[in-house]
Design brief:
alpha+beta; about 70 residues; about 20% strand; flat
Length: about 70
């Protein structure tokens, strides 16, 4: 955390891309099924240290949505 982020390998970039494809597919299917998806990719930052941050995948009908894919 002191020296910034390392550049991800090509394999990791490919895995990230595949995960985003699965995420988009699930979001589209959820919306087609009539669910409301809000706050897509909202960034959250820890109040105690701004270096701790991340994005939620959304809120689905009031419930936190965090999509994980498997390999």
């Amino acid at each position: 955390m002191k020296n910034g982020r390392a550049m991800p390998s090509h394999q990791m970039l490919r895995l990230f891309h595949e995960g985003h494809l699965h995420e988009q597919d699930l979001l589209v299917r959820s919306k087609q099924a009539g669910y409301v998806v809000d706050l897509y990719q909202l960034e959250l930052v820890a109040p105690f240290d701004a270096r701790f941050r991340g994005h939620i995948d959304g809120v689905l009908d009031g419930t936190l949505l965090e999509i994980k894919s498997v390999n």
